[in-house]
Design brief:
Keywords: Membrane, Transmembrane, Transmembrane helix. It comes from Marivirga lumbricoides. This is Citrate transporter. This protein is mainly α. It has one domain. Helices cover 68% and strands 3% of the residues. It has 21 helices and 4 strands. It has a two-stranded antiparallel ribbon with strand order 1-2. The chain is globular and about 65 Å long. It starts with a helix and ends with a helix. The relative contact order is 0.13. The N terminus is likely disordered.
Length: 506
């Protein structure tokens, strides 16, 4: 209860501080205008009006017109948080598990405070706060709603049965998102393999269901949804990403088959009788899941009639988040207790994700700013090709949130050809091709990399960390942060990503 209060208080503190600083800035600007009104000449007033119009430009913050750039050393809290996430469970497990909420919140507040009171930049913290609330509302509602559903697959665990579940999960991730598919299927996948479960089962679930699978629709993964909001046509991803999607899933299935074929049960057990049936309890929670997925589109950027919070030229939703959090509460309140017991449901996985990612969202702003500023600079723009977009978007998506990374590189790719991400017709033209050089391949490289490379680390995509936490909760020994990268990402995923690059982009 105390940790839940700490989480809530942290979100409120960061959001309130950001908005307060924004209001203070607005008040100072009004006072400045009033002073000039009393003393300025007509020419001065004309210049002031031009200045104020520029402040209303939606891109004025990105253009560096109102605040200083983040210094390079400000990425230290982000790097420190990543190192502690990686080393804490290995070298100081008791201290880490007891104190990671405080560490994440303190590091986030340090960076946010520097932005607000030293750089006088309210744009970054306010956007990060809104994006975090959107992120955690979706993850929490899907996690809690799916916790009231028990799927039991009464089949013998074999490599082919496991691959079938992974591929089904990858397919439905395009309908209910990688988070929804992960939360729905991870528990039945673990139960199916209860006598032979190993870490690689969970890792390949993360590869295929939590990441690669969701690359065909904007619903599948957050960066693709942001692209849709900016103007990329809804079926663009299906039309252009299906080849890489099939190749990646097919390759991962073959690798998994040979790994799983060598796996033997942990202990001798009596031969079970299988009727090959799939039973589902808690079916009414599918209605809750449907409400959550439908609410994703209740956004003022999609429908003008949806109320939103207008800040700095951008509309932020809040109705959607209220619906999601209400569904989370109602689905938990009305779920059958025996279903939660059979699912071994607890709030620990979502609690861990909530605190870790409040630290990540709060501390990664300088890294994103530095990457974005370089990509949009003359030197950065000269380096932009579909090859550098693939590797740049990809490698950063493994360690930063892949949604803002997608937007940063798409903005840079468009800016390098004189187009703007904030102009809808230009985004559509960039996606459809024929106007800007190689633009379809550029967008495809950014889209595939943002989704596929999210599987490189536990923090590359929201579901990764949650799946890991659920697995650990039921007693599966998972590799550490670096163990995941060294034992699985580098030997299995990285060669696949190289092949995807050679076949589809090189």
């Amino acid at each position: 209860m105390r940790n839940s209060f700490l989480l809530f208080a942290s979100i409120i503190l960061i959001s309130f501080t950001s908005l307060s600083a924004s209001l203070a800035r607005g008040t100072n600007e009004v006072q400045h205008i009033a002073a000039v009104t009393n003393t300025a000449s007509a020419a001065d007033m004309e210049n002031l009006a031009s200045e104020e119009i520029s402040q209303d430009d939606p891109d004025h913050e990105q253009k560096g017109m109102t605040h200083a750039a983040a210094p390079t050393w400000l990425v230290i809290p982000f790097v420190l948080l990543l190192l502690m996430i990686a080393s804490g469970p290995l070298f100081y497990e008791h201290f880490w598990h007891k104190n990671y909420p405080k560490i994440a919140v303190i590091l986030a507040i340090l960076v946010v405070s520097y932005y607000l009171f030293v750089l006088h930049n309210t744009h970054g913290p306010v956007h990060a706060a809104f994006e975090y609330v959107q992120f955690i509302s979706l993850l929490a509602s899907l996690f809690i709603a799916s916790g009231g559903i028990v799927i039991h697959v009464n089949k013998k665990s074999t490599p082919l049965v496991n691959i079938m579940i992974l591929l089904i999960g990858a397919a439905i991730s395009n309908l209910i998102g990688t988070t929804g598919a992960s939360m729905l299927l991870i528990r039945p996948f673990i139960r199916l393999n209860k006598n032979r479960i190993k870490a690689y089962h969970i890792i390949f679930f993360i590869f295929m269901v939590s990441n690669v699978g969701g690359s065909l629709t904007p619903i599948g993964d957050p960066p693709l949804f942001l692209g849709f909001l900016k103007g990329v046509p809804f079926f663009w991803t299906l039309a252009h990403n299906w080849g890489a999607w099939l190749f990646a899933l097919g390759s991962l299935s073959v690798i998994f088959y040979f790994l799983d074929k060598r796996n033997k049960p942990d202990e001798e057990v009596e031969e079970e009788v299988y009727d090959n049936k799939i039973t589902i309890d808690g079916k009414r929670n599918f209605i809750w899941l449907a409400v959550i997925i439908a609410s994703v589109f209740i956004d003022p950027n999609i429908f003008e009639w949806v109320p939103g919070i207008n800040y700095d030229g951008q509309q932020f939703s809040f109705i959607r988040e209220l619906i999601m959090l209400s569904v989370a509460y109602l689905s938990y309140k009305f779920a059958k207790k025996d279903i939660h017991e059979r699912n071994e449901f607890s709030f620990e996985p979502i609690r861990e994700v909530a605190f870790i990612f409040i630290g990540i969202f709060g501390t990664m702003m300088p890294a994103l700013d530095l990457v974005g500023d370089f990509a949009k600079s003359e030197a950065g723009a000269s380096l932009i090709t579909h090859n550098t977009l693939y590797w740049g978007t990809g490698l950063l998506s493994g360690f930063l949130d892949n949604a803002p990374t997608y937007l940063n590189f798409l903005a840079a790719a468009m800016a390098s050809q004189g187009a703007s991400l904030s102009v809808l017709p230009e985004v559509v033209a960039f996606a459809e091709g024929g106007v800007y050089y190689d633009s379809v391949l550029d967008l495809k490289a950014i889209s595939i990399a943002a989704v596929f490379f999210g599987a490189m680390t536990y923090i590359g995509n929201g579901p990764n960390f949650m799946v890991k936490s659920i697995a650990e909760q039921v007693g599966i020994k998972m590799p550490s942060f670096f163990g995941y990268i060294i034992r699985y990402s580098i030997p299995f995923l990285l060669p696949l990503l190289v092949l995807v690059w050679l076949l589809f982009f090189y």
